[in-house]
Amino acid sequence: xxxxxxxxxxxxxxSTGDKLNVLGIFSNLMAREEPIVHPQMSxxxxxxxxxxxxxxxxxxxxxxxxxxxxxxxxxGELVVGRAGRGMLTLVNHIVVLNGLRLPxxxxxxxxxxxxxxxxxxxxxxxxxxxxxxxxxxxxxV
Length: 141
Prior knowledge:
4-stranded antiparallel β-sheet; elongated; mainly beta; 5-stranded mixed β-sheet; Immunoglobulin-like; 69% strand
């Protein structure tokens, strides 16, 4: 098994033929104040499996801050089907996160854990919008 794609994006979907569509890949967010609430994002992971790896796998998606505090823990199952002889199996995993609340500025990481082993880490950096530095015309405050 290997991870082919692991990103955060504004939007992701699957189209006919299981084509993975990803729009607006990012790793940085800026906000004016804490807590930060992001309207919508998708965690997108594409796995590649050898034919011998077919079957059910435990899948856990965890979001942690830089202090190791877990903010999100989604547990599920990934089903790896059988591909044609000698072919690899691609499995797409999209986690849509609406209204994700981040308590403070800082560094976060999404960990994708398959059968107890971390297979991907996707960072998210959240910073404060810098203050405006424009000059005022007559020195008035």
